[in-house]
Amino acid sequence: MTQTTGVTITGASGRMGQMLIAQVNASGKHHLAGAVERSGHPWVGLDLGEVMGGASTGLMVTDDPLEAIANSQAIIDFTAPAATLEFAALAAQARAVHVIGTTGMSDDEIAALEPASRHAVIVRAGNMSLGVNLLTQLTKRVAAALDEDYDIEVIEAHHNQKVDAPSGTALMLGEAAAEGRGVALNDVADRGRDGITGARKRGDIGFTAIRGGDIVGEHDVMFAAAGERIILRHIASDRSVFARGALKAALWGQGRAPGQYDMLDVLGLNDTPG
Ligand SMILES: NC(=O)C1=CN([C@@H]2O[C@H](COP(=O)(O)OP(=O)(O)OC[C@H]3O[C@@H](n4cnc5c(N)ncnc54)[C@H](O)[C@@H]3O)[C@@H](O)[C@H]2O)C=CC1
Ligand SMILES: O=C(O)C1=N[C@H](C(=O)O)C[C@H](O)C1
Description:
Blueprint: E1 5-10, H1 15-26, E2 30-36, H2 48-51, E3 61-62, H3 65-70, E4 74-77, H4 81-94, E5 97-100, H5 107-111, H6 114-117, E6 121-124, H7 130-145, E7 151-158, H8 168-181, H9 185-188, E8 189-190, E9 205-211, E10 217-225, E11 228-236, H10 240-252, E12 259-261, H11 263-267
Helix pairs in contact: 1-10, 7-8
Binding site for NAD(+): 11-16, 37, 101-103, 125-128
Binding site for NADP(+): 38
GO biological process, one term: lysine biosynthetic process via diaminopimelate
């Protein structure tokens, strides 16, 4: 019998949690070893299959991540920053691969992942889709080819329940553009315009966030100059693109040296000519 990789899904009832569970069930390479929700969530203690509207599976949703992770080779985590830090410590103890899709983490929260990454593999990306990761490489390349006569703007659109802005993807694209230009994003990011802002500062990278309805995730990187505009665009119309990337990362991380990785590593795109 082929051995499959046991994964725990945290935030099991969430938009991504449910998509991940569906993708694990459809995968011949993974099996569900745990489903975690926050304490007090109505799914806790119930059969996962039944709460998802299907037949019972015998796998109960738990609010005890340690127990779930201890039986898993990987944890796939699309939750919230504080929860992700808690899971990182537990994944490190269990030497389980921790795939982090959670966005909205502060610089301090990202730095706090470092101790865990000394013991276990962490794969973290603000967007797990092949398309967006390829777009970061294209963005870097275009930014490197153009000078500051081309104003760079990152425009993102998401559903009305999203809690963080700019999106993790927008920040990845901004980082790629800044890298292409040879500058630090923190020095040039313009993240909120309102009122009398004054003229645009040359060299800035601007961010705009749209929130509405059920938009899954749309990102434009605009290079606007006098007389022309270049727009690089990615549209996600189905969350399965993120889930498939996360499942791939969970397999890729097995047997790797502890450390922090991203989806460019998983997809082998780090060597794409810049
Ligand atoms: N990297 C990527 O490719 C993608 C990242 N995301 C990010 O994933 C995160 C989740 O997104 P959605 O699924 O849309 O949100 P959601 O709000 O639908 O789901 C989050 C789930 O996490 C659960 N949760 C919160 N704290 C918890 C804890 N301590 N223990 C266990 N469960 C806990 C919540 O109860 C909820 O069910 C967001 O940060 C979002 O930006 C979303 C899509 C793709
Ligand atoms: O919250 C979401 O939905 C998404 N979040 C990620 C982000 O912040 O970029 C990825 C995707 O765009 C969907």
